[in-house]
Design goal:
Udp-n-acetylmuramoylalanyl-d-glutamate--2,6- Diaminopimelate Ligase, Chain: A, domain 1, binds zinc ion, six-stranded mixed β-sheet, 10 helices, five-stranded mixed β-sheet, alpha/beta, elongated
């Protein structure tokens, strides 16, 4: 058993939480019992994940997407009331790490997505250095890259073609980072891979000649929290499990 505050302090320094300007609080978002022995990890603190954590007898839940975001109106009603009620009734801690978990050099979402897909990271780009730039194992067409990613992540991708050049230099940023596309183009990428696409990126791809690929917000952000859960299990002797709640986005 480990005290919740010890885990909170450890993650605060490991993930360099103070370094990031973020859209919500990183760290312990909902306080539960003091002693933590079993940890459930997941992408989002949804009601389905909380229910699964209750069934798994978790003392704490560790997620990438917590409950509190800038722009919320602050009322505890509807889905917020339901999720909070479940956590509080079962005295379960909720730890959430957003940008600090995207960015961590080894355990982060970007590092882990690159590892899973076999990409070699070379440098960072974009706001708060959240984008990663590297090399694909060999030059490849957009269609081949799409089927490779679809096979590995277990979901289909949406892509916008560039000028058709063989893809060698890849830029990536997990989740909803379509706004990083122009920075990825400026950084010299042949293709930018993120979770989601919006309308403008299809035009930028055609006009700038750089391919764009959306591989799923949820699908690209499943790996950081798993690496972090395994790290915590080793560090503190906890038991832990990852629970994947499917999401079409
Ligand atoms: Zn996200």
């Amino acid at each position: 058993m480990t005290h919740r505050n010890e885990i909170d302090r450890h993650l605060l320094s490991l993930l360099e939480v103070a370094r990031f300007k973020d859209y919500g609080p990183n760290g312990l978002q909902v306080e539960g019992r003091e002693a933590i022995g079993h940890l459930v990890c997941g992408v989002t603190a949804s009601a389905a994940l909380i229910d699964a954590a209750i069934a798994a007898k978790a003392d704490a839940i560790l997620v990438h997407h917590g409950l509190f975001w800038r722009g919320q109106d602050g009322r505890v009603t509807g889905w917020m009331k339901q999720r909070l009620a479940k956590l509080l009734a079962h005295d379960i801690n909720l730890f959430a790490y957003h940008l600090p978990l995207d960015a961590h050099a080894e355990l982060g979402n970007n590092a882990q997505l690159g590892r899973v897909l076999g990409w070699t990271a070379e440098s960072r780009f974009g706001e708060q250095d959240l984008g990663w730039l590297g090399l694909l194992p060999e030059p490849i067409s957009l269609d081949d890259l799409a089927s490779q990613i679809a096979r590995t992540l277990g979901r289909s991708t949406v892509q916008a073609a560039g000028d058709g050049r063989p893809l060698r230099r890849v830029a990536w940023c997990t989740g909803g980072a379509q706004g990083y596309f122009e920075a990825a183009i400026a950084a010299g990428a042949d293709v930018f891979v993120t979770g989601e696409i919006s309308e403008p990126q299809a035009h930028y791809a055609a006009e700038m000649g750089v391919a764009f690929m959306a591989a799923g917000h949820h699908a690209t952000e499943r790996y950081g929290v798993q690496a972090l859960g395994q790290h915590l299990a080793q560090q503190f002797g906890l038991s832990q499990q990852f629970i994947d709640i499917a999401n079409p986005a």
